[in-house]
Amino acid sequence: MKSWISKTAIAIAMLAVLPALAHADTWQIDPAHTNVEFTVRHMMISNVKGQFQKTSGTITTGSDPASAQIDATIDASSVDTRVERRDTHLKSPDFLDVAKYPTITFKSTKVEAAGPNKFKVTGDLTLHGVTKPVVLDVETSGAPINMMGKMHAGASATTQIKRSDFGLTWNKALEAGGVMVGDEVAISIDVEAIKK
């Protein structure tokens, strides 16, 4: 039930790489080395973690990190919490409704320096058909490196959203008090991008 969130954010992950590639032009997110994870409170007593298996997108940069542009897309049906029954529920109309909203997207609107190799990346996250502004705390992995004749760069990012802000309101009351699924979702992203 928490996976929708990472969607988050997802697409969001791409944003993390942009600032680190200020000297480049266009970078492509590497799906095999990019991870979008989410954490949600379960029954008020523990945390459940999940991830999205398929993320794609591009990052366009210029001489100024603030000019970076990020455009990322997450395949909502790729949600994975390691429990098939829960994943099926997350894909249903109760949550992500992947048949109606097959993708989660993120488009950056502003990139600001926040310290050495650190940035605040603001962008529009579209999840479950609802678009809301999200701010990512991003830390780059330093200068890009050359691997097999191709330039690679990486970054990590974190943020937190409320699923209710995106119309994801399904829940169940517990006899002992509280609800089955928490509203706040923590998102953690690790991105690797390859210069085109």
Give a description of the structure:
- The structure is a single chain.
- It is built from 2 helices and 12 strands; from the N terminus they run H-E-E-E-E-E-E-H-E-E-E-E-E-E.
- With 196 residues, the chain is mostly beta strands.
- It has one domain (3-195): Beta Barrel (Lipocalin), CATH 2.40.128.110.
- The protein has an 8-stranded antiparallel barrel with strand order 1-4-5-7-8-9-11-12.
- The longest helix has 15 residues, at 3-17.
- The protein is elongated, with a radius of gyration of 17 Å.
CATH topology title = Lipocalin
CATH class: Mainly Beta
CATH superfamily: Lipid/polyisoprenoid-binding, YceI-like
The CATH architecture can be named as Beta Barrel
Mean pLDDT: 85
> Can you give the helix content as a percent range?
10-25%
Number of helices: 2
Shape: elongated
Rounded to the nearest angstrom, the distance between the terminal CA atoms is 36 Å
What's the total number of strands? 12
Kindly name the structural category.
mainly beta
Reported for the largest beta sheet, the result is: 8 strands, antiparallel, barrel
Could you tell me the strand content as a percent range? Answer: over 45%
Count of the separate structural domains: 1
Radius of gyration (Å): 17 Å
H/E element sequence: HEEEEEEHEEEEEE
Poorly predicted runs of 5 or more residues: 2-16, 18-22
**Oligomeric form of this entry?**
single chain
